Amino acid sequence: MNTVALPAPAAAGSAPRRIRAATAEAPWVRALLIGLALGFMTLFLFIPLVTVFYEALKKGLAVYLAAITEPDAVSAIKLTLIAAGISVPLNLIFGVAAAWAIAKFEFHGKNVLLTLIDLPFSVSPVIAGLIYVLVFGLQGWFGSWFIDNDLKIIFAVPGIVLATVFVTFPFVARELIPLMQAQGIEQEEAARVLGANGWQMFRRVTLPNVKWALLYGVILCNARAMGEFGAVSVVSGHIRGQTNTMPLHIEIVYNEYQFAAAFAVASLLALVTLVLKYLVEQRVKHQLRGDGERPE
User: Fold this and answer.
1) Which of 79, 103, 203, 244 could form a disulfide with 248 if both were Cys (CB 3.0 to 4.6 A apart)?
2) Are 159 and 153 in contact (CB under 8 A)?
3) Mean pLDDT score across all residues of the chain
4) What predicted TM-score, i.e. pTM, was given to this entire model?
């Protein structure tokens, strides 16, 4: 009778060694990948960022302060903050509601809603601005009605806010949806069994589980709102001191060869985003040290 020889059992610890051997890379490969990543970030992120601040301060602090405090620049800063201050909270509410509905419920039109959320990623911001002009402009579908009622949307603050809301509304939702889908609905169902209502479930169960993704989505949304150019450029009319946001003001002064002023406002735009991101990250780290949690 023939016998089949069975392989000897693996020695203790051999499986982890095989796993490490299969997943570990040679030192030169790790060094190459790290070098490529650092080189890419240096070339496309660090050098341009340093250049912006260098050019902004090259002629001295007095010139820098004059560039960011002249009337047109102040107006552009205020309008940018207004557009971001309206669009970010609106997209925060929409993002949380859309993510909750998509991740926690099954309903007809769910895939359509997901597609609509991704629409600003696939449509050029310039096209989005043109659509608003065709709808709300003087010769648009509702233009005559707005004129008869003394309402101005295009070439005014409302049009800028609408364009900003459109280009920024996917960011919060897209940060929350994958995380909420991965977490499932078990915790909410347990809270419901224990007698919690919808608001209590959201405040005590859902929100603590997604707060870090929510903060990150808000930062991205705010950065895009303050830096948006294409859609806002179409609906603003480029009226100096009235409808120019910071990116539009930068373009105008740069085209007028006021390079120091252009880089000064650009550095301020970058600084606001960086400071906001830094403050949020410090707040996150402080809370992590206090409660021992890890961000999702």
Assistant:
1) 244
2) yes
3) 85
4) 0.81
Give the pLDDT confidence of 162-206 residue by residue, as tens digits: 999 999 989 999 999 999 988 888 888 888 888 888 788 888 888
What angle do the packed helices 259-291 and 246-255 form, to 10 degrees?
150
Residue appearing with tokens 């373009």: 251
291: which 2 tokens?
């409660």
pLDDT single digits (tens) 52-66: 999 999 999 999 999
